[in-house]
Amino acid sequence: MKHVASLVIAAVCASAQSAFTPPRLPDGHPDFGGIWMAATLSAAFNVEEHAASYGTPAGPSVIIDPPGGKLPYLPGMRERALDNDQHRERDPVGQCHMHGVPRVMFPPFPLEIFEDGENVVILTETEHGVRIIPTDGRPLLKNYSSWNGDSRGRWEGDTLVVEVRGLNGKGWLDQAGNFVGAGATVVERFRLTAKDTLEYEATVSNPAVFSRSFTVRVPLRRRPADVELLEYGCIEGERDAAHLPSTNAPANGERK
Amino acid sequence: MLKRAVYVAQACVLGWLVTERIWRWMVRVGVLVLLVGCVIPVAAHHSFAAEFDDKRPVKLDGTVVKFDFMNPHSWVYLDVKNPDGTMVRWSVETGSTNALFRRGWRKESLRAGDHITIDAFRAKDGSNTANASTVKLPDGRQVSAASSHDDSK
């Protein structure tokens, strides 16, 4: 009986999803335009399921693959993440660096998306991040390396699929010290599932750190119409560094 | 007490959408919401635990020297009189300008000379630095500081 109920619920959900027709731009692609923010900030704290501690509310895992919601770290890598957790002063974001993909998509600050027919542009309030995602089929940059890497998009029906390479391997996935290392690639999928809900998924492949790829799913929620992106000069008021323990820890995956 | 605060915080997370809408509405009509004992713990620029100690709460009652309304965190500089009469200057971190602005704060919200009380947690390095949770304004209103453990948007 329980299974029947689950099937009915799943069918209703699927029906509701398929019934949604996204607003479209003149070129026929879905219009993702607007200001968005992660519907749940659980992922910003920790992409895995986590208990409450001061400053961190409990939250579920946002990892939908592999089953069980745990990051598939290679032997020894989870220990590095746990070590990061004990030394959160190493968090690149706390030092005003960029979030890196995929973390940049679920910070506790809004982001704006707009499309011009050839590019999908994502502006993030935090760190004044700019992601320009060409969808015209041009190749990825060669030998490029940066916090958010290089992105190329393509449309699969109403889903925007973005391939991200050129990540510098220094980014964390969350405040809890989960991380990606050198050579990571990310495939993101954006899809409007309701007028004010943009479903975001990111599949991360990083053989230097993980035994297999994993996928996170974080729904983004449209912000009210009067929300605007504001200036975020991270250096201006940065006065924490003087009170932090040494932040000279080696970069992810490079620890001896 | 701490556990209670965490539980209250978790309950607030469940209702944070509603709370935010209430905030926005009340700010529109020019009213600062009182958030006594109810924080909305949201991740911030840096982890609270990176710098501050949740086992070292401190109540600072003093006079505002300066309020720097900045990102990634705004800072209140406060002169606090010790029991022996000596004066100590504290640096107290609050939320980002953006988080505070969206909650109705403005750079004039605190002025030099204002007498305020801040509930905060001390920095791990033992300096006179703290992370604010709530600020009691000169008129007695207690408002959220949108700090590391209580930041937003």
The coarse silhouette of chain A is globular
Tally of distinct domains of chain A: 1
How does the major sheet of chain B shape up?
5 strands, mixed, barrel
Helix content of chain A: 10-25%
CATH third-level topology of chain B: OB fold (Dihydrolipoamide Acetyltransferase, E2P)
Distance from N terminus to C terminus of chain B (CA atoms, Å) equals: 28 Å
Number of domains of chain B: 1
> What is the overall pLDDT average of chain A?
89
CATH architecture classification name of chain B: Beta Barrel
Number of strands of chain B: 6
- Name the CATH superfamily classification of chain B: Nucleic acid-binding proteins
Outline of the structure:
The complex is a heterodimer of chains A (256) and B (153). With 256 residues, chain A is α+β, with helices and mostly antiparallel strands. Helices cover 12% and strands 26% of the residues of chain A.
What does this molecule look like?
The complex is a heterodimer of chains A (256) and B (153). Chain A has 256 residues and is an alpha+beta fold. Chain A has one domain (30-243). Chain A is built from three helices and ten strands; from the N terminus they run αβαβαββββββββ. Chain A has helices at residues 2-19, 42-45, 77-86; strands spanning 34-38, 63-65, 111-115, 119-124, 129-134, 150-156, 159-165, 185-194, 197-205, 214-222. In chain A, strands 1, 2, 3, 4, 5, 6, 7, 8, 9 and 10 form a ten-stranded antiparallel sheet that branches. The longest helix of chain A is centred in the first third of the chain and has 18 residues, at 2-19. Chain A is globular and about 55 Å long. The termini of chain A are far apart. The longest helix of chain B has 13 residues, at 2-14. Chain B has helices spanning 2-14, 16-28, 48-51, 97-102, and strands at residues 52-68, 75-81, 87-93, 115-123, 129-136, 142-144. Chain B has one domain: OB fold (Dihydrolipoamide Acetyltransferase, E2P) (Beta Barrel), CATH 2.40.50.140. The model of chain B is unreliable at 1-43 and 149-153 (pLDDT under 50).
